[in-house]
Amino acid sequence: MEEYPPLASLSLTHVHYNPEDRISYLCAWLALVPQGLCVVYATLIWSNREIEIMLMFAGQLACEALNWCLKRFIKEERPREMHGKGYGMPSSHAQFVTFFSLTLTFFLLFRHSPHPTETHTPFTFFQRLVLSVLALAGAAAVASSRVYLNYHTPKQVLVGCSAGAIFAVVWFLVTTYLRRAGWIEWALETQLSRLFRVRDLVIQEDLVDSGWARWEERRKRRAFQVQGKKSS
User: Fold this and answer.
1) What backbone torsions phi and psi does residue 24 show, to the nearest 5 degrees?
2) In the chain, pLDDT over 70 holds for what percent of residues?
3) 12 to 3, 16, 93: CA distances (angstroms)
4) Where does 122-206 have alpha helices with state H?
5) Which residues contact 71 (CB under 8 A, 6 or more apart)?
6) Which residues form the Phosphatidic acid phosphatase type 2/haloperoxidase domain (predicted)?
7) Neighbours of 155 (CB within 10 A)
8) What is the C-alpha to C-alpha distance for residues 54 and 80, in angstroms, rounded to an integer?
9) How many helices (H) and strands (E) does the chain have?
10) For residue range 179-227, what is the model confidence (pLDDT) as tens digits?
11) Residues 70-79: what's their mean pLDDT?
12) Which of residues 219 and 29 earns the better pLDDT score?
């Protein structure tokens, strides 16, 4: 009888949890947040072609690369109760969501300054602050779930959060320098950026309102044309 090698599990979306514990079940869903955010990144980049989102995603990937290097340098095992594979120090989930939430917070509070239009009043600073707090709270929930599910020790999660926070600050400073030094404007003028229609509107415009304003303008033109036909 032919022998086959033992099968492996694709652990990207494979989560162990206690089916009799509702909190454990919720934590299992929280473990899928990084994958969901990657889908959000890809969707926004493809649909809006905003360079700010591309920069944020590039930083996210660089943060993940840093986590990969740190795990193989430290080589600390996961908790004994965990049946998964790979090193546990630092927690990649904690580092991922901390970088995302802090980068989003820096953008909302220090870089995003949308102007009001005829169809939209942008969020106030206080509303953007509330969104930032919610993002940070969500990141804390995801990080805590890794300890609850015994995928990581508290120390591994804290180190992951610290690495994500430090990298978020560094990345924000780097992108701020690129903007002030004119490198972003230069990149937007390259043939490749113009080929893929990359733009930089999200700093001063709302992503939803930019499309809504054009829709309202089109509706007004159509209504004006209909009225003109009726009057004639």
Assistant:
1) -65, -40
2) 86
3) 27, 12, 11
4) 125-148, 154-180, 183-188, 191-195
5) 86, 87, 88, 89, 90, 92
6) 53-172
7) 14
8) 39
9) 9, 0
10) 999 999 999 999 998 898 888 888 877 766 666 667 777 777 777 777 7
11) 86
12) 29
Q: What's the distance, CA 91 to chain centroid?
A: 17
- Let me know: does 175 contact 159? Beta carbons within 8 Å: no
**How far apart are the C-alpha atoms of 192 and 49, rounded to whole Å?**
12
Average pLDDT score, the chain: 85
Nearest to 101 by CA among 123, 132, 67, 142: 132
Integer CA distances (angstroms), 113 to 102, 125, 160, 183, 229, in order: 17, 9, 31, 20, 42
Q: By the 8 A CB rule, do 19 and 25 touch? A: yes
Characterize 64-79 residue by residue with b for buried, 16 or more Cβ atoms within 10 angstroms of its Cβ, and e for exposed: bebbeebbeeeebebe
CB-count exposure of residue 106 (10 Å: 0-12, 13-18, 19+): buried
Q: Residue 64: what pLDDT?
A: 94
Contacts of 59 (CB under 8 A, 6+ apart): 99, 103, 167, 168, 171, 175
Closest CA to 62 of 165, 160, 159, 171: 171
Q: Which amino acid is at 129?
A: L
Q: Are 186 and 178 in contact (CB under 8 A)?
A: no
Residue 74 pLDDT level (bands cut at 50, 70, 90): confident
Residue 42 CB neighbour total at 10 angstroms: 12
The first and second tokens of residue 26, run together, are 């919720």
